[in-house]
Amino acid sequence: MKGNRQMYCQHCGMSLTEFKFIFADQPVCQQCYLSLQNTSSTTFDRQELLSRDRVHIDDPLAISNLKKIINRQLELKYHSSTQKLIVTCVGTDRSTGDALGPLVGSKLTNFRLNNKVDIFGTLEAPVHATNLEEKIEVIQRTYNNPFIIAIDAGLGKNKSVGSISVKHGPLRPGSGVNKDLPEIGNLHITGLVNVSGYMEYFVLQSTRLNIVFKMAKIISYALAKSLR
Question: What are the tens digits of pLDDT across the range 71-80?
């Protein structure tokens, strides 16, 4: 801390001697900062989100709207008569926030999807930083010009936490935690599970399972309805 002025967390009252975080323009300790970020209320504008191909987990229409977004995106680029559809769910069950991908993959395996869809990345067999390149090579050797939907968790601004986005182009795994990993996918779905900007690894570890589980349910149900 600068000077001799003692500062205290405005939420719990703890003396701030090592770290200083700001929440709502007030100094708070690290633990309270993460807690407040996780529990702060989030409002959303459905039409504004839909205009950017996004939905929010608190929207009761999230599954149906996400299905429509996925269908619209697939109609633009996916050729069902010539391309095998691959869903690659990136992440690890060793981190709560990063478990979104494996949760989606495991849920998808419980649906009766047609034989045009293969799934990589589940809780039992996750696709993560250490084996991603290997899995990409397996897909490239096994399939001829597949269409890949990649799914991963992400970090973002506080007001965006809880939103799920669908975008054309490859997923860049690890970008939120400054990892240089290979790109994957023709289309990618990202769920923003927590805030970015401070100690991203710790933030992912401390992410509430409830948020991740709700996202996994919405994404898996929307995909299953879209791909059947």
Answer: 999 999 999 8
